[in-house]
Structures are given as C-alpha cells and as structure tokens.
Amino acid sequence: MKKRILTGDNTTGRLHLGHYVGSLENRVKLQNDYDTFIILADVHSLAYPKYIGEPDLIADSILQVAMDNLSVGLDPAKVTIFAESTVPEIYELASLLSMLVPYPRILRNPTIKDEIRDKELGDNYSLGFLNFPVMMASDILSVRADLVPVGEDQSPHLELTREIAHKFNSTYGEVFKEPEGMIGRVARLVGLDGGVKMTKSLGNAIFLSDDAGTVRKKVMKMYTDPNRLHPSDPGKVDGNPVFIYHDAFNTDKEEVADLKKRYVTGKVGDVEVKEKLVVALEKLLEPIRQRRSKYENDTDAVRGILIEGAKRTRTEALATLDLVREKMKLPRF
C-alpha cells in the first residue's frame, strides 16, 4: 500500500511562484509514489480578518486554486483534490483534537505570532484564527497522512500536528501517524520588491496564471542592487532578488554563472539580466498556461474532480473519526 500525502492551499486568490517552489513542484514529483490528497482550505481562509467578509472571493478561489494545482501537472486520475468545507468530518475531528492542545501552546506558535505582527492584527483576530493550527492538524490527520509537503512558514503547524498525534496515541491508543514534513527547494521565495516573502497581499508576486506580458512587466520592475546606478558599476549578487530568481528558475546554470560574473565586474546591465530571467520564467510558465487553458474552458470538469475528491475524502475522514470516537469511548447510538 502506498504511503499517503496531504497538502494544500488557502483559497484567498490564485497561486504564485512562491507556492510553486515551496510545495507545488514536490506534489507533482511525488504523485506517482504516494496516495496524494490536495486540500483547498476555504474554511481556513475565513480565519483571516481580511477575508471573513469576502465569501465571493473565497468561493471563486476554490476553482482558481484547483486549476492552479492541475495546471502545474497534477493528474486528477492520481490525486484527490477537495474543498475543506465539503468534508464536515474534519470539523468534528478538529473539535475533539482541540481538547488536547493547551491554549498557551497556540500562542507560542511562531507562525501565529508572525501573522499577528506582520498583518498588524493587534487583538483583532478570531478564535478561528488561533484555532488555525489545530484545523490544519485535523486536515492532515483526517486522512492519516505520512508526509506533508509544506512551505517553511507552515512548519510550526506541522510540528503541532505531530504533538497532537503523539498525545492522542499515548492517551487513548494508536490511531494516527506522526507525519513528516517536506520543505520545498526554495523554503521562502523573496518578493519582487525584495521583501522577505512573495505574497498576494503585498502585490509582490508573479502568479502562475499571469500572461507573458504581465510577467515581463513585473520582472522589468524588480528590485536589484540599490547601490548600482550604472551598468558599468560593480553590482552585488548576494541578496539580489533577480539573481535569487535566476538560481531558482533558470535551468541554464552556465548562463547564470556568466551573468553573475559579469554583474559583479560591471560588464552587464540590469536590463539584460532581467530579459534573460523573463526567458527562463516563460519556459516554466508557458506549459502551465496551456494546461490551465484546457481547464478554464471546461470548469464543469474541474467541479466534477472536486465532487469526486470530496466523496473519497469523506470516506477516509469518516473511517478515521470512527476510530477516534471508539478510542475515546464516545458513543454512536
């Protein structure tokens, strides 16, 4: 029997290059070797104050994020894709698992603390926001996953998942595996503006669905070395967003090495470096656009994939929930 993966995305807008190197490409590589579940976490999306009043955006994003996953090369015959809200067993499981988590443990979660600080939430966050990590644990444990490809910022949530699984097993009896994480080859892709992370909300992202003209426009506006005023000035490569992207996406490593050598000696301008980055990105993005176009022209097929995914996931989650209730001596009359 194949080992199992669960991974996924919040449904707060289309996915971008940061998602690709953080998790998506690992999903594609592993889909033949693992029984893979992809969750479209629409309920999780409601945890953020920014989106609680945006039901239309979240609903539309379910379809958009599903197409993003399919367009990078996930095969619906091999993976199970579902919307979180269509599997109510996850909510019941989350409620039961939350009994095992001390409130101060959630407040110590570094991702929760970072989100409160970075989004300037103050004390304007919901109980659902604090419960986000427990809900994520329930997503993962509902299908008893072995492996979870995640972005670096989600690692603390996965660590809590392992703690919950261990505590449940030691308290009530063996049900859950303690899943391992897999971080993408670029743990956290910087934004186009040089910010610490590419993110939709800051407008510093290249989306997988961006057309060629938009990609080019965004790349040509990218931050480089702020101290370099002329092409003949020696430039800095380390920490330079354009070269970070070359390292991540340009498969011609000889070209990258040549650009770096000329850049630090003032023998190449930012324009040429960016032009070559556009070419490298288009090699990745054009096939993705072509696959996405097929699904955009047949959204009923995408909805069918999600319906079938929900059916299969509910079967698995219900089996897990029955085991949990049995171990906890909770009656089913």
From TrEMBL:
Organism lineage string: Bacteria, Katanobacteria
Organism annotation: candidate division WWE3 bacterium GW2011_GWF2_42_42
GO cellular component: cytosol
Reactions performed catalytically: tRNA(Trp) + L-tryptophan + ATP = L-tryptophyl-tRNA(Trp) + AMP + diphosphate + H(+)
One Pfam family in the UniProt entry: tRNA-synt_1b
Full protein name: Tryptophan--tRNA ligase
Database matches in InterPro entries: aa-tRNA-synth_Ic (IPR002305), Rossmann-like_a/b/a_fold (IPR014729), Trp-tRNA-ligase (IPR002306), Trp-tRNA_synthetase (IPR050203)
Keywords: Aminoacyl-tRNA synthetase, ATP-binding, Ligase, Nucleotide-binding, Protein biosynthesis
Annotated EC: 6.1.1.2
Keyword check for Nucleotide-binding: yes
Keyword NADP: no
Any single biological process term in GO: tryptophanyl-tRNA aminoacylation
UniProt family annotation: Belongs to the class-I aminoacyl-tRNA synthetase family.
Enzyme class: ligase
Domain of life: Bacteria
NCBIfam families in alphabetical order: trpS
MF GO annotations: ATP binding; tryptophan-tRNA ligase activity
